[in-house]
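Side project, low priority. Logging it here so it doesn't get lost.
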Amino acid sequence: MVNKTNPTQSNNTVVRSLMNIALSLGVMLGSGLAYGFVQTAFYSKQHEQSAQAELGRFGRAEYEQLKPGMSLTEVRSILYRGVEVSRSATIATFVWENPDGSKITVTFEHDRLKSKAQSGLK
């Protein structure tokens, strides 16, 4: 009796094995990349907060520099990063806070400064 193997069946087994290996590698690499992105985002947020604590102290003088129609980039050049606290299709609100609790709240409409408010600035 001659034992004949089906070459198509053998090739299918090899292809399935290679596909399983490729899928496993893809999942491992994808998980590693996701972990890296999460770590980078977390580190960036911590770094941003510490940079604002060191550099972002602001007072009434910086508040007075904020003018209607300024872009977020222009405001950030004065106050640094800030925290976005709300956003709709046309309106976004950001808050900047000093370590002493004094703060500035700015509302942008269509990406332009519409209103500003402060509390406790010296």
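Brief comment: The radius of gyration is 27 Å.
Revisit when time allows.
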